[in-house]
Write a structure and sequence with these properties.
The structure is a homodimer of 338-residue chains. Chain A is α/β, with parallel strands linked by helices and 338 residues long. Chain A contains 11 helices and 12 strands. Helix content of chain A is 48%, strand content 16%.
């Protein structure tokens, strides 16, 4: 298997990306096709003593400014590392593409260059997030701020396939993010999506309240991209604030500092468990080939883990699974998804 | 000033409500008009030794089942404590109404019985919530799942007036809950609301991301009721989960138990600071007279505090303030709010 890797995406590129690739090749037996400035990649590898064995390089030296919009990146910087990677994937030069770069650009580029799975209305950004025990998938986490109900149905189908085939959650529970658990809750979008999800054949557990998401309301949380993005970001914001407050508390006086020393290791473990950077990243789901978003802050180990998931994304035949599920629903319910 | 109080709303009614009323009368020099079963009120007061001085009772003995819908409560149980209280307020028998009962019923009843401030499109449920330092108001927190942009503008105007006049936040910063901070973010609703808020004369700070709400993004967070409800409930859900994890961590072994003993008091303080039950409750804002929702779990002290805020709601002339602001906007922008 050959995975195309954006060597210049994320906060710690290219060094940590190269390190992560090295680790992944050695552990998971994959080949890597790097995109980005060949000169910088070679210099970085040499300086850090990273062997480039089993790594090819596609020279794509164009640099993106931090304030460029996703659209302009993809339209005007055709030889930046991300656009080049997506093109190589579309051309069949690799089995999947992974980038720690700008999510918006990745979604936009996947749409434009890799295209969608036939029958799929919208590509979604679907982060895997921590909950009390384990994780859940949020679909959509922000790619589509305005959605129709048939898109929400597809988010459920796609999230379900991914959790089953990649994350090892058989028959995942799909819940619709709503303002209450009763069937009639929400607005028109939720009412319609509820009906579609109910006859989808998915393991639909109904409406779920935001309050129950961090506990264990569902394995796949279906939401329009606006709501999903609010969930994603508030989740992070509240956790950051609370950890900040705990830190302040522990630094208050000698007594609290002693307490901090006693639980330091456990606290770090807990923080790590909640850090969504440690989790499964986010498939750019609905693209016709596997495209994966690693976290922007990913260091070598996290990036290695993201490559492992990308490999599973290919091997789990998630795309075929989604195609079949969509075709099956259309057949049974007469083009309701069309 | 006479405040009408639903003696049978909330988890600890009527005992804690009566205790809270007693404390409020003694501290804030208000008169109280209680609604609910006069017999039970008198029995409870006598048994607990609570003086009913300066408290009148309006006998409204009809009982609500827990599974009744807000609409059926208000339509069919005209002599339950909440409906009676709203009616007494509408008839001018008191200056404000406060209840710790069902929020949905209170919003619906306020609409039906007290009516809206002229020019106001929708009554909002506007909880005051904790952030890193102090608090913010969420408007709307869930009364209106589907909103138009002119309603969002009014939520900003109403929240602003309340924070200024009741909570002592002069010139409050109003932010629009969105999926990013850039001006063009969001869907049609956000684009339109952004424009209206920008020319509103409010201290509009633009779009805010959910990630920044717990820090200090704005004093008034404007959102449609669906988004607002997701924010309200996820906020609570994440905090509950994190505190649960910390509790588990502290119980892990002798070392962590020792640490727990050292920070127990500080932790409780922190938890209390974050407990939105300790905060300002939620005005049912937009109603033609002051209607206030105290937390369902309110005990005497919290309820007393809610009465203090209800008094400030009356004395701050918030309703007049809102009326003027709405009229002023209409005059300047030619019926944009109509």
């Amino acid at each position: 298997m050959k995975i195309v890797v954006d060597a210049f995406g994320g906060d710690h590129a290219p060094l940590e990306i190269l390190r992560g690739c090295r680790m992944a090749i050695d552990e998971y037996d994959v080949d890597i096709l790097l995109t980005g400035s060949e000169m910088v990649i070679r210099e970085t590898a040499e300086k850090d003593g990273i062997s480039l064995a089993r790594m090819e390089i596609f020279d794509a030296p164009e640099v993106i400014a931090t304030d460029e919009s996703p659209k302009s990146i993809m339209r005007e910087k055709k030889n930046c590392s991300m656009a080049a990677g997506l093109r190589l994937l579309a051309e069949g030069k690799g089995d999947a593409f992974i980038s720690a770069g700008n999510s918006g650009a990745l979604v936009f580029g996947a749409n434009m260059i890799v295209h969608r799975i036939p029958g799929i209305k919208r590509i979604a950004f679907a982060p895997v997030m921590p909950k009390h025990d384990g994780f859940f998938m949020l679909c959509d986490g922000g790619a589509n701020v305005e959605c129709r109900s048939d898109m929400l149905l597809q988010f459920g189908i796609m999230g379900s396939a991914y959790l089953d085939k990649v994350m090892g959650v058989p028959n995942p529970r799909v819940g619709l993010a709503n303002v209450g658990t009763e069937d009639h809750k929400g607005g028109t979008l939720q009412h319609e999506a509820f009906e579609l999800l109910q006859k989808s054949g998915l393991n639909f557990v109904g409406n779920i309240e935001a309050r129950d998401i961090p506990a264990d309301a569902a394995d796949v949380v279906v939401a329009d991209g606006f709501t999903g993005n609010v969930i994603l970001k508030l989740y992070e914001g509240v956790a950051i604030e609370l950890f900040g407050m705990i830190k302040e508390l522990f630094q208050k006086n000698l007594k609290t500092k002693l307490a901090a020393a006693l639980v330091l290791k456990d606290m770090r473990g807990m923080k790590k468990r909640l850090d969504y950077n440690e989790y499964g990243g986010a498939p750019i789901i609905g693209a016709a080939k596997p495209v994966f978003k690693a976290h922007g802050s990913a260091k070598a180990k996290t990036f290695k883990n993201a490559i492992r998931l990308t490999k599973a994304y290919v091997e789990g035949h998630v795309i075929e699974e989604i195609s079949e599920a969509i075709a099956c629903f259309e057949k049974e319910h007469g083009g309701q998804v069309e």
